[in-house]
């Protein structure tokens, strides 16, 4: 995740890295949608999930965020098809910090280092 005020190149950096992947290997699903019934199927089989403009002031349910970012198995669904389980392998990039809602420190211990590491 990239943090900072506007106009400092976060989106340009994301677009530069995005250009290194073939279009079919990418998803653009906002983390705020990772709990929606059909949305989570978007990153299945993708190498990266790039979102250059994330909404500010929204809170995320920490369990869903942790599962997707750490590659835990998640259930997804496509319209008119059976639900399926997959392990997200896509790296995720966004342009601002996210406020997570969680009941313990698992998010800080497991996700914090992943977001901070280069």
UniProtKB/TrEMBL annotation:
Superkingdom, natural source: Bacteria
Gene3D superfamilies: P-loop containing nucleotide triphosphate hydrolases (3.40.50.300)
InterPro entries: NrS-1_pol-like_helicase, P-loop_NTPase
Domain NrS-1 polymerase-like helicase: 2-90
Protein's recorded name: DUF5906 domain-containing protein
Source organism (scientific name): Sorangium atrum
């Amino acid at each position: 995740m990239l943090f900072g005020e506007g106009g400092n190149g976060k989106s340009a950096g994301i677009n530069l890295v995005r250009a290194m992947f073939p279009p079919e290997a990418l998803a653009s699903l906002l983390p705020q949608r990772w709990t929606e019934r059909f949305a989570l199927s978007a990153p299945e089989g993708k190498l990266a999930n790039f979102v250059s403009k994330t909404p500010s002031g929204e809170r995320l349910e920490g369990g869903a965020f942790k599962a997707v970012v750490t590659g835990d198995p998640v259930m997804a669904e496509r319209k008119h098809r059976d639900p399926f389980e997959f392990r997200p392998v896509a790296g995720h990039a966004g342009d601002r910090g996210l406020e997570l809602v969680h009941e313990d420190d698992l998010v800080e211990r497991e996700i914090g280092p992943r977001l901070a590491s280069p």
